Amino acid sequence: MGSRRRLAHDRSDVDAALAVLAGHSSGTTGQGIPMKSACAVIVFAKAPVPGYAKTRLIPALGSAGAASLATRMLHETLTRAVEAVIGPVELCCTPDATDTTLIEAAQRYGATLTHQGEGDLGQRMHRALARCLQVANSAIVIGTDCPGLGVRELQVAARYLADHPAVFAPAADGGYVLVGMSSTLPSLFEDIAWSTEHVMAQTRRRLSGLGLIAAELPIMHDVDTPEDLVHVPKEWFI
Questions:
Q1: pTM for the full model?
Q2: DSSP assignment of the chain, as one string?
Q3: pLDDT in tens, 100-114
């Protein structure tokens, strides 16, 4: 994509970003990034209902097992979002905001509960980001199906948004597991082949065409198919 796109694939880059992050956080014990530069964390989640959540895992886990794992991943993701202490946490759900598990999870973690609304994935993500950017300096959208996306990665992503318009965490399957923005960029979410192996490549081309400098975290694995279950910690199945 040329030299204009800032990449951060190497662990040394991540560690360097964390060092800077620590400097920004000094004197704010327990607060992480100062609130004046808060980065909202938006957790996209489906209601963990059997037959609705993680349906591609049903052949391996059954509908109840897939829903149970979805519930565990929801709680793990919200825990990390809160522990990152980079800004307010929002649980943005589908098909609506009436599922008991989602309501209780939002209350437990102090997250705002919102509804994703209508439209394709790109429209829903952009709408959520644009809403949060009205009250925060930057915002990140993550799903609940990436066990490798932890506190460190969220903090690094927030740090990159201090001097980049966008940050991504590419997925091994060609998509991405995290997208963050410091300003609204609707064209990055339009006419993308969502849920395919082309998502990240198309997004990179769009960034290049716009002449934008984006940051990337290391490639991670999400959990969509039975083959992906090797990336799930064994204790999450209990």
A1: 0.85
A2: --TTS----SHHHHHHHHHHHHHHHTT-TTT-S-GGG-EEEEEEEE---TTTSSGGGHHHHHHHHHHHHHHHHHHHHHHHHHHH-SS-EEEEEES-S--HHHHHHHHHHTPEEEE--SS-HHHHHHHHHHHHTTTSSEEEEE-S--TT--HHHHHHHHHHTTT-SEEEEEBTTSSEEEEEESS--GGGGSS--TTSTTHHHHHHHHHHHHT--EEEPPPB----SGGGGGGS-GGGG-
A3: 999 999 999 999 999
